[in-house]
Amino acid sequence: MQSSVNNNIDDSDGNNTDYELSSSLAEETKKPLMMDYDSSSARQDGFGIGGGPIGSVTNFFASFILSQVFGLFIIVFVSVWISRYLGGISFADSLLIFNFHPLFMTLGMVFIFGDAILVYRVMRNERKKILKILHAVLHGLALGLALLGSWSVWYYHSSKGIPNLYSLHSWLGLLTMGLFTSQYALGFVSFLFPGLAPGYRRIVLPYHVYIGVTLFVLAAVTSLLGITEKAFFSLDGKVNPRYADKPGAAYVINMLGLSIVIFVAIVVYLVTNNQYRRRPLPEEQALQLQNEETTSMN
């Protein structure tokens, strides 16, 4: 499945990257491969980061760590908001069932979604087959949490007689969920099982990448709309203070929103910066050459 971003246009490993090349092929490709390998895509820094300067590696991992710090902030702020200001979570009360919605949506469709996108760039020395599986598992986890979060708000609205799907937040949420599910299914079939032929995967991959990044940003925008909507509903000056009066909950909500924006901005920077693109492992490049030679003979 690759419901999101591969960001490595060379996806010619097919479904064969888990077996070693034959000894004869390895001997045939070793010398010319390493001698003729374009230095612009060489893994000369040990991490497969373009050009190989130490500063690039340092900048990449510093940015990644910063993204995880703000990802942790997202989890902390949404947990504080729910536990301290919204009454916590529970299946015994429909109001508390609703609180699963902001928790699961921010955790699944923002934090886990973002980390799933980064798999190919952070774990760049792993075989692509392993990265595909991990990419699929993380997106599957994000989708599962999102479905549970969607159920919780639907259940709450139905139990309270509140209309569903009337706000911009709900419309964008429905659009995001529909596209995310479709992207997951198509990515799974195209890149993991059964997997398209290498030539077709090269055609599909750029669209898969673009849609994945777009969906990630759309999920974040939808989350921000939902957080703001809930802030106005819960801080209405009746039972709780008004949002405009800047109670403690308002600061927690605003910090949650800022953390989402910064996390998303860093993730998008890391996956759209061509300098940080994952470079193929030597055996992957050798297999690519083999596939291209086989295709040209047919």
Structural class: mainly alpha
Kindly state the percentage of residues in helix.
Answer: over 70%
Distinct helical segment count = 9
- Please provide the ordered H/E string of secondary-structure elements: HHHHHHHHH
Descriptive report:
Residues 1-10, 14-42 and 294-298 have low confidence and may be disordered. The chain is an all-alpha fold and 298 residues long. It contains nine helices and no strands. It starts with 22 loop residues before the first helix and ends with a helix.
Topology:
Elements: H1 23-36, H2 54-85, H3 94-98, H4 100-122, H5 128-160, H6 168-192, H7 198-234, H8 248-272, H9 282-297
Helix pairs in contact: 1-9, 2-4, 2-8, 4-5, 4-7, 4-8, 5-6, 6-7, 7-8
Search tags:
298 residues; mainly alpha; globular
Task: Briefly summarize what is shown.
It is built from 9 helices and no strands. It has 298 residues and is mainly alpha-helical. α2 runs antiparallel to α8, α4 packs antiparallel against α7 and α7 runs antiparallel to α8.
